[in-house]
Each structure stands twice: as structure tokens, then as C-alpha cells.
Design a protein that fits this description.
Blueprint lengths: L2 H15 L9 E7 L4 E5 L12 H11 L5 E8 L9 H9 L6 E5 L4 E6 H4 L7 H4 L1
Parallel strand pairs: 3-4
Antiparallel strand pairs: 1-2, 1-3, 4-5
Bound molecules: tetrahydrodeoxyuridine.
The site of tetrahydrodeoxyuridine has 13 residues, from helix 2.
Amino acid sequence: MDAEQKLFQAALLAFNRAYAPYSSFRVGAAVLGSNGGIYSGCNVENISFPCGSCAEQGAIAAMVAGGEHLIKTILILADSQELITPCGACLQRILEFSDSQTLVCLADTRQIRRTCRLTELLPHAFAAKELKS
Ligand code: THU
């Protein structure tokens, strides 16, 4: 099984475990770190709606807790006819742990439907480099 298929399987498992009783829209995400590790997450909603979290957020938190800070590939999976792309806040979260090669795979429950670079989805990102100087 290649890396993208492993990511797909990890995201599908997370998708099936997602907690989305309010929107009924489950999302799974899986990250391949530059160390080869795979980390997954799902959306977790809350009766106090703003307390909910996105699938990408969970996968990135798991990656950081695993000691990894560079996303090679992230796969986002939802059961949707439309191609699902990460929300704006999650694009920014992915960016924090990305480089110019970072790939984003967009999938439904059957297959990966599109793979692109993060820079394609977030071409004019806030540049934190300026904060560091
Ligand atoms: N959601 C994600 O998990 N990731 C995104 O990038 C967009 C939206 C979740 C949040 C909420 O639980 C549900 O999808 C509907 O917005």
C-alpha cells in the first residue's frame, strides 16, 4: 500500500469515528509527517457550537504530540458530492507546519479526488516570517 492509500485508510477510520451530531457532517483527516509517521483526527462537535473542532486540527495536534513538525501530505475526507477543501482556519493551521512541497489530498469516502499543493489553496497567506525578524 502506498503512502497516499495509507493516509486514505487512516482518514476513513477517523471519519467513521467523527463526532458530528449537530451538523451531521463528518470529516476525517490524516497527516503524513516528514518522519514517515501517520497521524489522524476527526471533527469533534459540541453542544456549545464554537467549542467544536475540525478534523485537520485533531490530526495536526496528534502530529505535534508525536514529535513531528513538518507535514509532507495531509488528506481530508468527507462524504460529499462536492470537493471538500479545508476551511480558512485549517488552511492556516496546515501552513504553520508546511513547506513549499506540502501536498493536500481531497477525498470522498471512496477515493482521493484531487491532490494539490497547499500554496494553490492558500496563495497569499499571512507571512509569519515578518513577525520573527
Ligand atoms: N469541518 C472540518 O472538520 N474541517 C474543515 O476544514 C471544515 C469543516 C467540520 C466542522 C464541523 O464539525 C463540520 O465540519 C461542519 O462544518
